[in-house]
Structure prediction request, 512 residues.
Amino acid sequence: MSDAGYDEWLDAIDDGEGYYLECAEGHGSLPPRRVCPHCGTTDLNRTALPPTGTVETYTVCYVGGPEFEDEEPYATAVADFGAVRLTGVVRGVDPEDVTVGATVEPRIGTNQTTGEDLLTLRTQ
Amino acid sequence: MTGVRVAGVGLTQFGRHPERTGRDLFGEAAVAAREESGIPPEDIEAINYGNFMGSLSERQGHQAPLMAEMVGVRCPATRYEEACASAGVAVREAVKTVRSGEADVVLVGGCERMTNLSTAAVTEALATAADELYEIRAGMTFPGAYALMQRAYFEEFGGSREDLAHISVKNHDNALPNDYAQFHRAITVDEVLDAPMVADPIGLLDACPVTDGASALVLVNDEYAAEHDIDAPVSITGSGQGGDTLALQDRDHLAVTPATERAATEAYDDAGVTASDVDAVEVHDCFTIAEVMALEGLGFYDSGEAIGAARRGETTATGEHPVNLSGGLKAKGHPVGATGGSQVVEMTRLLRGDHPNSEHVEDATVGLTHNAGGTVASAVVHVLEVDP
Prediction:
C-alpha cells in the first residue's frame, strides 16, 4: 500500500531532509494536510524539521499487535521537535533504558516483522 | 423542549462469551430493556446502535438493521462508531432525536464481541482507534497510548503506580455485588503492582479486560411517559460532546483531556448544574490513569490532584464522592461499543435505587456518565437526574 504525502515525508527524512508543515501562526503539522489542523488556514509551508528532538514520554510495549511480534519488547516514544512531535520506535538503546529527556534523531528503519519502512527515533 | 426519560434498561452479563454472536448479545440486552419499559415493539421509532470493531471481529458491517431484527422492529436503525465512545454518541444522538420531536420512543445501546479474537488480533483491532499513519505504524497499542499519557502525567504532576493501584482495588471492590460485572474478585495493591507489564508503566491489573457484552435503553419523551403511565423516574437532562486531535502527538498537553472538559461544560450547561451538584459518577476508566484524567477534566479535581483520590478514600464506595460504583470498565468490563450505554444503564439503576450499590448514594439526585474514545479524541458526557 502506498500513502501519498506520508510516503514522501518518510523519504525526505530518509534523505536527511525532514520537514513539517507550518502556517503563518507558527502551528506545525505533518502531511498529508490541506489545511492547518489547529486554525484551518490553507497557507502551509514546508519548514525544515530540527535534526534532533527530545523524548517527552515513552512506553515499553510487551504485548504488541501481529505487525510487531518480532519487535517485542520495544519502546515507542513521543519526542518534541518544537512545532511538532513525532511518535516512533526507539532504536539505539535497550527499550528498558529509554529515558525522558533523551535526545533522539528521526531515522527510517525497517519493521522487523513486516519489512515495511518504519519511523524510528535513534538515541544519540 | 421535551424532557427525555429512561423507560427501561437492559444489559447482558459482561465477560467472556466467545461463542456468542453480537446479534445475540444485543438482542438479549435490547429485549430486556424493552420488556422492562413495557413499551410494545411497534412504538419504537428509531434504533441507535454503538459498535466499534464488528467489521473486524465478526466480519459484519451494516449491523444496525440486523440489530433491529433482533428486537423485532423495522424502524430506521443506525450504527454509531466513535471507538470506545460509540454508545455514548448513540445515546447523545437519541437524546437529540427525542428532544427534537422526531421520535417519541428510541431504543439505544451498543454491543461488542471481542474474546473470539486472539490477544494479538484484539490488540490490533483496538489500536485502530489511533492514527494509522503516525501512531499504529510506530507500534502504538491502546495500552501503549495510555502508558504514554500516564508517564507524561507522572512527569508533569507527580504521582505513582501505587496511587493508581488503589483505583483498581476500588473498582474491583465495587464490582463484587454487581451481577453483570466480569470480575467478582477483590484484589490488593500489591497484586496490581506485581502483575505483568503490558505497556510499561501500565500493568495487566491497571487495564480493563477484554469483554463481550451489550447494553440497551429505551428513551421516551415526557409526554409519552405520562400518556402511557410509564414508570420512568430518571431523566437525561444534559448531554455534551467534545473532540480533539486523533493523534496524541498533536495535542498541546499529553496529560490532560480537553475533549472531556468541552463535553462536560456543554452537559453541565445543558442540565443547568455544576460539578458540585453531581452525587454519583461513572467515568471511562479503560486504564486507571484514565479515571484520574476524567475526574480532572470533569471539574471534580484540579489537574494533578485526582491521582490520590482513591488512595485517600474520597472516591471509594464509602467516600465522599463515589466513582464507578458499577465496577467501572476496569472490573465490570469494557465491551467497547456497549460501554457508553452501559454507563447510563448503571447510573439509572443507581439513581432509581435498584442497583446493588445504590445504598452508597442513597440521597443522590444528580448522576454523571463520561465515555471516551481513543486517547480521548472523543468524549461524551451525560447528566442524569431522578424525580424527587
